[in-house]
Amino acid sequence: MWETNGMTSAKSWISAALFLLLSSALSHAQYNNRPYPSTNQKANKDLLMMKTWFHADSTLQGYEVKVFIRVANDFVQFIQEDSLFKARYMVTVNLLDDDNESIGGRTVQNHLTAPDYKTTNSRRIKSLHTFKFYAPPGKYRVFYEIQDSHGGQPYQQKEKVELPAIGQLTLSPPLFFEQSDN
Question: Does residue 21 sit in helix, strand or coil?
Fold first, then answer.
């Protein structure tokens, strides 16, 4: 009889430990900050895509630099408010020269609303942000940051851009945001 009670007691203890572990894991997943890639890691292109494109401006003295950032719904964290799901995030882009001085920078905020949970996890629904800067020929770094209001650490990425002297034949790489069947 003692062994049965001991066995029952051990089973109860194991069941209680599993219950606590499982409930802790579930509550952690429910309120956990979204796991952003680290600064040294590229985000999945389905979630976040950042492209820089440039061309000589109309005066032929410098360049118009355009930065495109596409953010999928699944990249940001939605919070349920009443019957809707809402998300807010900020996108910051800075163009830095060789001396780490800002040539220009801009921040935009985006507010998203989704009717259901499935839409919050969509990788097909995306927001496109475009930033435009003017810069003379030189070497630059484009600094991107996305700060999710509900999500933890900001996602940051840097990209080197070289704007050659005007007069040389210069082409930006093509921009492909979606794969085409054609």
Answer: helix
Contact between residue 147 and residue 90 where contact means Cβ atoms under 8 Å apart: yes
Residue 166: the pLDDT is: 81
Nearest to 133 by CA among 103, 108, 156: 103
Of the candidates 167, 115, 118, 158, the one whose C-alpha atom is nearest the C-alpha of residue 139 is 158
Q: Residue type for 86, please? A: K
Tell me: the pLDDT tens digits for 146-158? 999 887 778 998 9
**Cα 9 from Cα 30, distance rounded (Å):** 31
Calpha distance 182→132 (Å, rounded): 29
Per-residue pLDDT tens for 122-132? 999 999 999 99
Model confidence pTM above 0.85: no
Tokens for 73? 């719904």
